[in-house]
């Protein structure tokens, strides 16, 4: 989750300014400021400091708040702060979430999808969550379908959950031999069993 940083952490972050941001995302932020998109101002720029890796990336409060109710609530509570600590998202994932907020696209790395979907869910960036869900559906296979079903159940991804159940039913012989089957959420397991019974 995010929280406003105190002055001591803020000072430490300023000393590590050379680590700020992915180049492409930094350019997007700079261009947005230069063009005054959505009436953003230079004073509207905030630094998101990833505690997990000690790196920061800049973004505009207004842009973040428009796409994320979590950020909106945070900024309303602490309007004068210029640094936010992010404690639950890795830097690489944070950069891609910001890229989506500014450009409505991400650099697809399937290895990041679960983390990216989780971050989108946590911060309420619904468009990104949907994009991740659609990509996960496209890459469903015998090895990842159980994990996808768990993720869909946890993040309330209705479409992914439905497709995962259909995939498990269709490939029951292969998926059923996986030890991870025991980890399937109860509701998913019931749906799978019901579908298998209806096939008989």
From TrEMBL:
A Pfam short name: BTB
Annotated BTB domain residues: 43-110
Xref: PROSITE patterns: BTB
Domain of life: Eukaryota
Protein name as it appears in the record: BTB domain-containing protein
Organism: Nasonia vitripennis (Parasitic wasp)
